Write a sequence for this structure.
């Protein structure tokens, strides 16, 4: 599988991606296929060596039938079709899907200049936004809840940007309770993940004073929330290549750029699916302080609620049965609003092996009671290029799931 990932993720970047006059990658005419390989995975991998396709995801068939989602450039379509693998078309034109995301929105300014500490508008969730706007949004959210929040920095990115977040707390004061710890946009192209993390944060802030249940969440836990863990990669998806996944790290001795941050944690780091340069800081600090109750690494796409473990399909957490039960009930809560169905279960046996994953590290090294990953909308039709019209619904249904989870630990 590593060979296929190298070929599909590196080869297109090295050889034939088309650029517009601004230097931005053009995906017009790319078709997205879901390919069912059956027992011919090795043959599929071998024959794809000559196709400059993009590997979007590989479901290893633990729940659904094993399949690959790949984006094939127009010049390679005849060669792909000649392979004669069973497939169905998820998208006729990836470029058109990207266009349907809409233009990056303008930051919704307050109508009243004096309302500097006003809660930001829900219009924020009507569009995707530039990275600088995300920082402004976080600042404004903190200002609206200034007595119970602070902006935090969890280190710097490879290109020197602060990895910014927000810390929320309740009546006990800051740093007094076990941590709830969220990551968004670890993978650069998964724009919906930061928006959903921000929506959950918005609801916590907006309802602390008027909802006793929400007040209870913040009074019982300190929330540490990083909406965009990968700012360098995120910016690159907006300026150059919408489907870039990794960060922008360079290394001596290779022309390859980027490390998969979610294969970057120093635990079970040498198994299937691992990457390079492990590292973790904020989780260690939170574990040493008051412990971590819940960690969620938010991703897209696929609609999964994933419990430990990724590194092994046979390992189980001490509270595995409870985690799996809560995940299933959380998925039921998510589905109540719009009927969006999430599959649940341990990462490795439900989706695929993820050695070096953050939720395994936080579970076993930081001793978090719950270490999860959630894959948001959808199941492949739009994939990473989810239309902006689905941002608010994605946030609303995720919030229903989080409310259930926080109330039923």
């Amino acid at each position: 599988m590593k060979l296929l990932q190298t070929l599909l993720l590196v080869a297109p970047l090295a050889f034939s991606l088309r650029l517009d006059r601004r230097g931005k990658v053009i995906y017009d005419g790319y078709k997205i296929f879901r390919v069912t390989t059956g027992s011919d995975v090795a043959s599929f991998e071998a024959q794809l060596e000559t196709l400059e396709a993009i590997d979007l995801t590989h479901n290893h068939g633990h729940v659904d039938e094993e399949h690959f989602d790949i984006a094939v450039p127009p010049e390679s379509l005849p060669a792909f079709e000649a392979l004669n693998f069973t497939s169905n078309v998820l998208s006729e034109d990836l470029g058109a899907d990207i266009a349907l995301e809409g233009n990056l929105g303008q930051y919704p300014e307050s109508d009243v200049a004096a309302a500097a500490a006003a809660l930001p508008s829900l219009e924020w969730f009507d569009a995707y936004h530039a990275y600088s706007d995300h920082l402004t949004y976080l600042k404004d959210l903190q200002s609206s809840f200034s007595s119970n929040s602070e902006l935090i920095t969890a280190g710097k990115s490879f290109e020197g940007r602060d990895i910014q977040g927000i810390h929320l707390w309740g009546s006990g004061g800051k740093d007094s309770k076990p941590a709830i710890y969220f990551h968004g946009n670890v993978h650069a192209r998964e724009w919906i993940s930061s928006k959903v993390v921000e929506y959950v944060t918005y609801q916590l802030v907006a309802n602390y004073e008027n909802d006793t249940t929400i007040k209870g969440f913040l009074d019982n836990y300190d929330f540490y929330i990083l909406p965009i863990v990968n700012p360098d990669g995120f910016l690159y998806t907006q300026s150059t290549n919408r489907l870039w996944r990794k960060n922008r790290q360079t290394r001596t001795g290779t022309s390859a750029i980027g490390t998969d941050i979610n294969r970057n944690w120093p635990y079970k780091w040498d198994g299937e699916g691992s990457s390079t340069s492990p590292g973790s800081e904020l989780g260690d600090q939170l574990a040493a302080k008051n412990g971590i109750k819940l960690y969620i690494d938010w991703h897209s796409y696929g609609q999964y609620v994933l419990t430990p473990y990724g590194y092994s399909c046979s390992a189980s957490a001490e509270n595995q049965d409870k985690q799996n039960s809560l995940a299933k009930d959380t998925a039921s809560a998510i589905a109540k609003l719009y009927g969006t169905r999430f599959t649940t279960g341990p990462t490795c046996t439900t989706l695929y092996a993820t050695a070096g994953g953050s939720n395994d590290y936080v579970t076993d090294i930081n001793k978090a009671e719950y270490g999860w990953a959630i894959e948001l909308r959808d199941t492949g039709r739009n994939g990473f290029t989810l239309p902006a019209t689905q941002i608010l619904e994605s946030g609303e249904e995720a919030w229903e799931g989080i409310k259930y989870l926080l109330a039923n630990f």
